[in-house]
Amino acid sequence: MSRTAFLGKVVTKHHCIEDGLVVVEDKKIIFVGSQTDFSGNDPEMKIISYPNSLIIPGMIDIHVHGNANLDVMDGNVDSLQGIAKSLCSYGVTSFLATTMTMPIAKIMQALRAVLDYQKRKEPYAQLIGVHLEGPFISPKQKGAQKEDDILHPTQFNLQPILDLLQEKLKVVTLAPEIPNALEAIRLLTSQGTICSIGHTDATIEEANQGLIAGANHFTHLFNAMSGLHHREPGAVGSALFNHEATCDVIADMVHVHPSAVKIAFEQKTREKFLLISDGMRAVGMGDGTFDLGGQKVNVHRCIARLDDGTLAGSTLTLNRAVQNMIETVGTSIVDAVYMAATAPAKKLGIDVAKGSLEIGKDADIVVLSDNFDVNITMIQGQLVYQGVPYSD
To answer: With a threshold of 0.85, does the pTM exceed it?
Structure first.
């Protein structure tokens, strides 16, 4: 079998190996460590050398709506293919197709497209399931989602989605204080779906009731949720207080102040803190006017807002989220990569195969330059993106 070796600064779960080496055979990793410790020399082994770059595990985005002027809610396989291909250029090797609050017929169309796309086995970022963000949210914290399309999570409204997706429904974001929410959380968690508290105006008691019912995650912490007040800690207080619950954050330093990001990181630690993009179709497109869930979004200096000024998704990518955590928040390279790859893999229960550079795991590998551009993306041993040429 052919082998490929990556030479550079290898980022494992615990260390950054300066003279690192990752060796791939077929679709799997067979060696991770120092170059001097590798004894399996093969004259035909392909060498990919980026000595000043970071070699990291493929990143996993559990909350991304789209990019490259494409959106999951387009409801067709061509858009999903374009999103998956574009994500490779940002170092994402697995993702959840994330929906949003729209008429239920549009949501079902988007979900059917996901199932159709998964049958195609495209060689791009792997679409591993669905994140249903809405329509089961609070009108008071709807963010950039349409209030007219918000629904209560009754079994009548949920069952068609469950019947269609089954185990491919990975995450549902919902507000625990709205009617039928606690029953929905119990139903969803009994079937293995992660229930995430988000787009919520819950008090801390209401958020805690959601956790007791089975929710164990918080969607884009601080954004579109009741904030921390000393007399009413709200959903944010619940997230920070309950150590077992995980959360994700849009670390573009616009949605959340760097100091707030740091507080959350120090409270939750890298084990319970996931980086997401919340990317929408404007990602990679520059300034302009775009559509998000049937609403006009204006992007200026990479910040997306509705006409009323509401933040509307983001133009962040995970490689830049990692950069921001290191350069602005001050986390280590190892921890920043962990939150973009390992923590999401653990949350989704796929860490046996993905999320870190370890022997036996899938060869999902990304090479980041010293300014965090993506030089190489490999998925299961196949090179799917190359930016800057490497030296043999």
So the answer is: yes
**132 is annotated as contributing to ligand binding:** no
User: What string of DSSP letters covers 294-322?
Assistant: TEEEEEETTEEE-TTS-B-SB---HHHHH
Does 152 count as an annotated binding residue? no
Which candidate in 61, 74, 278, 351 is catalytic?
Answer: 278
301 labeled part of a ligand binding site: no
The domain made up of 59-348 has a fold known as: TIM Barrel (3.20.20)
CB-neighbour burial class of residue 189 (10 A; exposed 0-12, middle 13-18, buried 19+): middle
Tens of pLDDT, residues 303-333: 778 777 787 778 899 999 999 999 999 999 9
Tens digit of each residue's pLDDT (9 = 90 or more) over 253-297: 999 999 999 999 999 999 999 999 999 998 888 788 877 767 777
In the residue annotation, 148 being an active-site residue is answered as: no
Is residue 229 part of an annotated ligand binding site? no
How far is it, in rounded angstroms, from Cα 53 to Cα 365?
13
Q: Are 238 and 217 contacting, i.e. CB atoms less than 8 angstroms apart?
A: no
User: How far is Cα 27 from Cα 257, in angstroms, rounded to an integer?
Assistant: 40
What is the CATH number that goes with domain 3-57+356-386?
2.30.40.10
